[in-house]
Amino acid sequence: MNNILILRPQAQAAELQQLLAQRAEQLQVPVTSQSASMLRISEYDDPNYSLANILAEQWHGAMMVSVNAAHYFAKQARAWAPQAAMPRCRWFAVGPVSAKAISDVVQRPVCCPWRQHNSDALLALPELQQVEGQRWLIIRGHGGRELFADTLRARGAEVTYLEVYQRQSQPPTASQLSEWQQGIDTIMVTSAEQLGAFLAAAPNDSKDWLAECIWVVASARLQQLLPSGLSRRVVVADSAASFAMVDAWQQAIQLTKEV
User: Which regions of the chain does DSSP assign to beta strands (E)?
Assistant: First the structure.
């Protein structure tokens, strides 16, 4: 529980590492942490839509799926439609971190689930139950998940995607993997894409190490994505927010002490 690998880009992991250090000091537990991203994120120019036209249309509701979506959407809006106003519609996010990023871009309130921060909790919000005949905009990465859009369509909404970034695999080096196997005993993951890329890059001789690690994951869906041999020591956080991941890590410590 003392040597933690966070599968997140450094910029997004910095807050989590800071909170981990503070909580560890409170608990008087020695901790080291490092972050690594299994994905390289870059801008994507959606060939299907003009961003200026998207901004000029009327929407009943809109969401950005992540902080990356907010970042690249804002970048493209500044470059390609600097005079255009942001859609004056209801904006939604999965959790408070992305909600703040979106609000900074659109300068409007952004709604997100209060307790659990995932697509299922978002789709359970009362505001999203009666959407028949409405037009919705989803800003996401290239080839993202379909759950949110499919559910809104099933409820009678018309959904348009605008894809503003793309993911490319960035596997760890052999020396990184060797170093992690020697020292890492806890792995934190908040993204299905990061988890998939990490597991795909892990060599066969790392399976025993991975099975011995404590896994702190951001949702039950991520837990289900873990291979059966790796799912014996898993703690599920309430969300991907840094404070929730730290709370789950503390819970893992308590469970380990009780065993």
Answer: 3-7, 32-35, 39-43, 61-64, 90-92, 110-111, 135-141, 158-169, 186-189, 214-217, 234-236
Please give the Cα distance from 227 to 183 (Å, whole number).
22
Q: Show Cβ contacts of residue 154 under 8 Å, excluding neighbours closer than 6 positions.
A: none
Tokens of 60: 């009943």
Cα distance between the two ends of the chain: 14
Question: Bridge partners of 166?
Answer: 42
Token pair, residue 193, equals 């894409």
Domains and CATH numbers, the chain: 3-38+171-258 (3.40.50.10090), 42-168 (3.40.50.10090)
Helix (H) or strand (E) holding 220: helix 220-225
Q: Which residues pair with 7 in a beta bridge?
A: 189
Return the pLDDT at 1. Answer: 58
Q: What is the largest CA-CA distance in the chain?
A: 60
Q: Which residues lie closer than 8 Å to 180 by C-beta, 6 or more apart?
A: 5, 172, 209
Helix (H, G, I), strand (E, B) or coil at 135: strand
pLDDT, tens digit, 9 for 90 and up, residues 166-188: 999 899 999 999 999 999 999 99
